[in-house]
Write a structure and sequence with these properties.
Two copies of one chain form a homodimer.
Chain A (H helix, E strand, L loop, with lengths): L4 E4 L9 H14 L9 H16 L3 H15 L6 H16 L8 H11 L1 E7 L2 H11 L7 E5 L4 H11 L6 E5 L2 H10 L3 E4 L20 E3 L6 H10 L1
Helix pairs in contact in A: 1-4, 2-3, 3-4
Chain lengths: 233, 233
C-alpha cells in the first residue's frame, strides 16, 4: 500500500524529553529526603500524575503541579516554601531546556520530506511544544504541525480527515506504542516504532509485534528505509 | 467589503471566564492574610504572571503556578503545605468549572452560522479549552477551532491563510481589544468589540475607536447585526 503522508512524534522521537523529566525527578526525590526515601517517590508521583491527567492533561506545567502536590502529601504538609519554590524552578527549567535533537534527525526528516508529505504530531503544553518546534529548526519540513491534547483514534481520524489523507496511506513514526502506533494501526495505517532509551510509565502499551504494517527500528536513521519498505508491502 | 468568515473569541465572549479568575483571586488573597493585606495581593500576582508569561503561556495551570510562587514570595517562604494545597485546589476548580454561556450566545452563534463561515479562536491551555468547547455544545457551528498560544498578527495571518480567507473579508468578535481586535484591524480585517464586565489587566489596550471597520456593541445579541453592517461598509 503506497504511503502518502508520514507523521512524526516529537518528544523522544525528534528530540530528547523523557531524559530531562527523569533527571528532574531524581533531583525532586532528593529534595524530599527529610520525609521519604528517594526510591519511593517515583511511584507516588506517578499516582498523582494519573489522578491529575483528567484535570491537567499532559505537559510540564501539569507535571510541576503534580510534583508540588505529591511533595505536600509525602511530607504530610510539612514541606516548606523554599522547597516548593525549588520545585517551581524545576518546572521552569524543564520548560526552558534547550532542544537537543536525537542523532540523525535532520538527515532522516530531510530524506522523508523528499518522498512524503510530513506532519508533526505531538501532545503536551501548546506553548511549550510550539517553542520547541520553533527552536528545533525543523518546522519548515512539515506541511502540518498538530499539537493535540490526546493521541487516540479520534484524534488521528480528525487529523487525517483535515489533511485529506486516506488512513491506510498514513504511516506514523514515534517512540510510544500507545500514542504513536496502536491508534494508527487501528485506523488501518502503518507504524514505525523507534524506541527511546527510557519510556514514561504512562506510555507503556501492548501491541502485536507481528502486525504486518508495523516495523521497529533502532534509530531514526533507519526510518526512511522502513517507511519505504512498508509502502511496498 | 463583504465578510466571508467570522471569528469568535471564547473566554468572556461566549462563556464566563474572567469572573471565575477574579473570584479565585479573592479567595487566594484571603488565604494570604497572615502575611499581607488582601488589597496588595492582585498587583503582586499580576507581576508574577507577567514574569512567567514567557515560560508558562496563558491558562489556568500557569495561573496556578504563579499563585503558588507569589504566595511563597509574599509570605517570605512561610506559607505552609496546607495553604499551597488549597491553591492547587483553586486551580483544579478553575479547570473543572462548568461552562456557563453568556446570555444570547446560542442564538447569536446560530444567526452568524446562517450567513458566514465561523471560526472559534482562543488562547490558553489546549486541554482546558478543548474541554470547554466540547462542554459548550457549540462546536458544530464552527468550521474551524483554533487554540493558539498567542493572538497576534502572525497568528491571525496564518489562520486566515489556512482557511483560505482574504483578511479584509474576516471579522473578529471578542472582548479583548488587544487580542481580538487590534491584530485583525492591522491585517485589514474588521472587528466587533463586545466588552465583558471585567477585563484581565494584561488584556488592556488602546485602539482607535473611530476605525471605520470597528464596531462596539453591548451584548453578543447585537453582533449579527453589527457584522452585517460592517459587511455593507
Amino acid at each position: 500500500m503506497p504511503i502518502e503522508m508520514v507523521g512524526l512524534d516529537a518528544d523522544d522521537t525528534l528530540w530528547h524529553s523523557e531524559g530531562h523529566y527523569r533527571a528532574t525527578q531524581e533531583r525532586y526525590s532528593a529534595l524530599l529526603e527529610p520525609w521519604i526515601g528517594a526510591a519511593e517517590v517515583p511511584a507516588a508521583l506517578l499516582q498523582t500524575e494519573r489522578r491529575n491527567l483528567a484535570h491537567f492533561g499532559y505537559g510540564a506545567k501539569g507535571f510541576t503541579l503534580s510534583m508540588i502536590e505529591t511533595a505536600i502529601e509525602l511530607s504530610k504538609g510539612e514541606v516548606d516554601g523554599h522547597r516548593i519554590h525549588v520545585i517551581i524552578e524545576f518546572g521552569r527549567e524543564l520548560l526552558n531546556h534547550p532542544v537537543e535533537l536525537l542523532d540523525g534527525v535532520p538527515e532522516a526528516v530531510e530524506a522523508l520530506a523528499d518522498d512524503f508529505r510530513l506532519a508533526l504530531v505531538t501532545k503536551g503544553d501548546l506553548f511549550h511544544q510550539e517553542s520547541k518546534i520553533a527552536a528545533s529548526g525543523l518546522a519548515d519540513a512539515f506541511e502540518r504541525v498538530e499539537i493535540v491534547s490526546e493521541k487516540d483514534v479520534p484524534t488521528y481520524a480528525r487529523l487525517l480527515g483535515a489533511a485529506g489523507v486516506d488512513p491506510p496511506r498514513f504511516c506514523m513514526v514515534g517512540n510510544s506504542l500507545r500514542s504513536d502506533i496502536a491508534p494508527v494501526l487501528a485506523l488501518g495505517g502503518a507504524g514505525v516504532h523507534v524506541p527511546y532509551e527510557v519510556t514514561w510509565a504512562m506510555e507503556h502499551a501492548e501491541v502485536d509485534d507481528t502486525h504486518p504494517r508495523l516495523d521497529r527500528v533502532g534509530s531514526i536513521r533507519d526510518v526512511p528505509a522502513a517507511v519505504a519498505a512498508l509502502a511496498e508491502r
